[in-house]
Design brief:
Elements: H1 3-10, H2 20-23, E1 24-26, E2 33-35, H3 36-41, H4 57-64, E3 70-73, H5 91-102, E4 108-115, E5 118-125, H6 136-152, E6 156-162, H7 170-174, H8 176-189, E7 194-202, H9 204-207, E8 216-219, H10 230-237, H11 248-253, E9 259-260, H12 263-277
Parallel strand pairs: 5-6, 6-7, 7-8, 8-9
Antiparallel strand pairs: 1-2, 3-4, 4-5
Helix pairs in contact: 6-8
């Protein structure tokens, strides 16, 4: 054995689960280095600047449901790759990669459980799954979530995060916009609330449809919310737009949303809204 091998063997490396790669987290906003555990314990918010990082459905469900207990609402089966689309990769290959990376079937996952001891159905869009884009599977999952809420006589709470419609499905993706609107009409006919929490980012066709149709519109701090991008709008109207005009705080100031709520307060706020919008029925004497 060479001297280099002996020295290398004698260096006390950290075990893999505590390696330098996952022991620290670099904040995307302030670039501070914080312990990953501290970041996770702070609900994936930077303890230095309070930047709310993007999270997936599993973490969101555990944060929102009482005792972290919930049951996944099965997603309907839909036809995959209806247009046999291919750009630099086959669409089917992109789906396989996204599923391997996230563990989810598609970008929208629904679950049922209790929030503040009230039965609720919660849907979460995961931006990590192809940018949370809205395709046929997302539209079907949205309808399934709404109908699960109707069956349970419970509110439907949706966390949005999307780059818009899924280009690989063409016009079929855009058809999910009116489809979602019809499903929400069924929910309202049943007298059940629809609460939307806009997270970073919520853009495109999702913003133009079910993301902005809530009975109450909440948003996480500094979330990007809009239809078209700032550069596109500036080039169209040939004017310089105000700083942060598509951020949650600006939209709150101009009446587009109702509240900006920090992640630590979301569960309590949603529970309170459910009590306001769907008060408990008094038992007959």
């Amino acid at each position: 054995m060479s001297w280099l091998s002996r020295v290398r063997s004698g260096i006390p490396f950290l075990p893999k689960r505590q390696s330098a790669d996952n022991l620290w987290h670099k904040c995307k906003k302030c670039e501070a280095m914080v312990f990953t555990k501290e970041w996770e314990d702070n609900l994936f918010c930077c303890p230095r600047c309070d930047h709310h990082d993007r999270i997936g459905s599993k973490a969101r469900f555990e944060q929102m449901f009482d005792d972290g207990k919930y049951d996944i609402v099965p997603a309907p089966e839909v036809r995959e790759d209806p247009l046999k689309f291919r750009d630099t990769k086959r669409y089917t290959d992109r789906l396989k990669t996204a599923r391997a990376n996230t563990g989810a079937r598609d970008a929208l996952t629904n679950a049922r459980g209790k929030i503040g001891r009230r039965k609720s159905v919660v849907g979460v869009q995961d931006f990590a799954f192809m940018g949370g884009s809205m395709g046929v599977a997302v539209g079907a999952a949205f309808v399934a979530g709404v109908r699960a809420a109707i069956r349970d006589k419970a509110p439907y709470v949706l966390f949005t995060a999307a780059g818009g419609a899924r280009m690989q499905e063409g016009i079929l993706s855009l058809m999910q916009m009116p489809r979602a609107t019809v499903a929400l009409a069924e929910l309202r006919e049943a007298g059940l609330p629809y609460i939307v929490v806009l997270t970073d980012p919520t853009t495109g066709g999702v913003t133009a449809s079910y993301a902005m149709l809530g009975d109450v519109q909440l948003a996480e701090p500094d979330a990007l919310i809009g239809f078209a991008g700032q550069r596109v709008i500036e080039q169209t109207i040939r004017e310089k737009l105000p700083e942060g005009f598509q951020r949650a705080e600006y939209l709150l100031e101009h009446g587009m949303i109702d509240m900006v709520v920090k992640r630590h307060d979301l569960k309590a706020t949603v529970a309170r809204l459910i009590d306001y919008l769907a008060p408990r029925k008094k038992k007959a004497a």
